[in-house]
Amino acid sequence: MKIFYRILSVVVVLFGLSGVSSFASEQVWHNDLRSKFLNNDAAIMEINIRSFNANDVNEDGFIQEKMGEKRGTFINAVKRLDELKNLGINTIHVLPITPTGKLKALGTAGSVYSAAAFDSISDELYDKDSKLSLEEQAKYFINEAHKRNIRVIVDVPACASYDLYLQRPDLFVSNPAGEPIVPSDWTDVRLLSVGTEDNIDTNVFSLYKDFVKYMMNLGVDGIRADVAHSKTAAFWKELIDYSRERDPEFLWLAESSESWHDPISPYAVFTSYDKLLEAGFDGYYGSFFNIKDWKNAKELNTQIAQTLNNTKKFKDKKSVIGSFTTHDEVSPILLKGPNLSEMMIWLNATLPVNSYFVDGFQTGDNYLYVKGNKLADETMTDDDMYFTHRGKIDIFNLSRKPGGNNVTIKNNFLLGNNVKQSILPVLNEGTYTPLKTNNQKVFAYSFENNIKKVVTIGNLNFEEPVKVTVKVPKFNPKRQNVLPIKISDMPVAKRGKLVLTLQPGETVVLIIHELL
Asked: What backbone torsions phi and psi does residue 102 show, to the nearest 5 degrees?
């Protein structure tokens, strides 16, 4: 811990780092999210409003309002915005705020991705202690985020609930027997009809266009498209063009990956990530979530090189998020312990990507819920179980506020976000070089411009320490200095190489620059 704080002090003095400055309340907000994202300058936190600042008094993981416990709302969510700002977050990705289906549901509130309507806000997010209307509360939350220089992305679900199917069967795909399609294994939703590249389903398109218009009127800065590949490029292009006519800075983020190749149903379309980017999306997920399966350095460096190449092959500028952890991924704490969380922080910080995290990650939440998958005390749906995905942030119930008590992760989170700001020009403009090591379990890479070289080294062996030699071309310790940013023990600097011992799962970040 002493080493960490000493390094933090050095970084603060060297780079003049500080928290994000407040945005004066009297100023008019001007959306700049698209530019910020394309510059890899967005530090994004994914949040679920209905749990974001919930008050779970008995700590069983879920909210029983008849006992005086309180769900998350737009109003009480405002109380956590300063916390995010002080951690270096400048953008929030809000999970769907559309009404949720209650029939054939999963969980006691229903999945936030089981949309029952696209032209209104879920009344679950209403704070009855406020005199504002639900829509006014949503605008208040967004405005308060903007006052803190925090941009707001809202999620649009890819499918819709059984409830909506009963009201509007014309919006859905049916099988030859006339039954609505259950996509993938998502039993609580049904597949929307989108038409073809040459013939867009106008009813569903109108549904989404109204949603986009509604979100923009609320003051939202961008949209994340859930399972974006389940709609045609033509569908998205027309929608994106509509939004850009109103606001050229409106961001579009596709949940898509170069490693995904299959439709969510034999009845669904599949549009590859590159076609989505050609249609106007500004960015996508890449395949960084595969970190949990990487066995050696080659896999990591291959993924980095592939993603960097993918974002450069388009006429318009594109970018990605550091999708190492999302609401679809199991907590790194459960997978390989806190060192994996730290590795994700520093990969986000030292790659030309938009940093991306899930609420609770910053303090080491394992996303385990005491009464998860047990009989519920009360329910709002036809499901009487507290359905959860083990180790993943809950999206099915009114649940506890995400959180943990790992101070080391929190400190690394703050430091990583601040360091990212200081080295961003090197990451964006510098040359990426995979560095050779004498251990296949150790990855190393650098980004270098004519001023400095940022070197990142990580041990993919989470069980044993390793001594490793990292070859650093043109490195001369007599003419260059090594500044430790994140490290436990200083490396031995030799001409053309660094020799160091890495603890299990340890990630090291160094800056090499010319001696003054």
From this structure: -115, -5
What would you measure as the largest C-alpha separation in the chain, in angstroms? Answer: 77
User: Residues 249-295: pLDDT tens digits?
Assistant: 999 999 999 999 999 999 999 999 999 999 999 999 989 999 999 98
pTM: 0.94
pLDDT band for position 30 (50/70/90)?
very high
Sequential DSSP letters for 204-239: HHHHHHHHHHHHHHHT--EEEETTGGGS-HHHHHHH
Task: Say what angle helices 202-218 and 134-147 make with each other, to 10 degrees.
Answer: 60
**Contact, 151 vs 31, CB < 8 A?**
yes
Token output for 382: 């036809």
Which residues have CB under 8 Å from 266's CB, separation 6+?
A: none
What is residue 428's three-state secondary structure? helix
Contact between residue 130 and residue 144 where contact means Cβ atoms under 8 Å apart:
no
Residue 429 to residue 435: CA distance in whole angstroms: 18
CA 362 to the chain's CA centroid: 12
Nearest one of 132, 126, 129, 122 to 72, comparing CA atoms: 126
Determine the 3-state secondary structure of 176 from DSSP. Answer: coil
Q: Say yes or no to pLDDT of 3 above 80.
A: no
Closest CA to 37 of 218, 224, 208: 224
Q: Which residues pair with 172 in a beta bridge?
A: 192
Query: 380-404, pLDDT tens digit by residue?
Result: 999 999 999 999 999 999 999 999 9
Tell me, what amino acid is at 40? N
CA–CA separation, 467 vs 476, rounded Å?
A: 21
Among the listed residues 150, 45, 54, 50, the one whose alpha carbon sits nearest the alpha carbon of residue 96: 50
Q: What is the pLDDT of residue 377?
A: 86
Distances (CA, A) of 495 to 431, 438, 455, 471: 21, 16, 15, 9
Q: CA 289, 443, 479, 481: dihedral to nearest 10 degrees? A: 60
Query: Does residue 180 sit in helix, strand or coil?
Result: strand
Count, residues in the chain: 516
Q: Quick: pLDDT tens for 409-421.
A: 999 999 999 999 9
Query: Tokens representing 140?
Result: 């208040």
How far is residue 381's CA from residue 398's CA, in Å, rounded to a whole number? 12
Model pLDDT for residues 58-115, shown as the tens digit of each residue: 999 999 999 999 999 999 999 999 999 999 999 999 999 999 999 999 999 999 999 9
Q: What is the DSSP string of 272-338?
A: -HHHHHHTT--EE-TTGGGGGG--SHHHHHHHHHHHHHHHHSSSS--EEB-TTS-TTS--HHHHH-H
Helix (H, G, I), strand (E, B) or coil at 513: strand
134 Ramachandran zone, left/alpha/beta (phi>0; psi -120 to 50): alpha
Distance CA 435, CA 316 (A): 30
Residue 120 · residue 99 · CB < 8 Å? yes
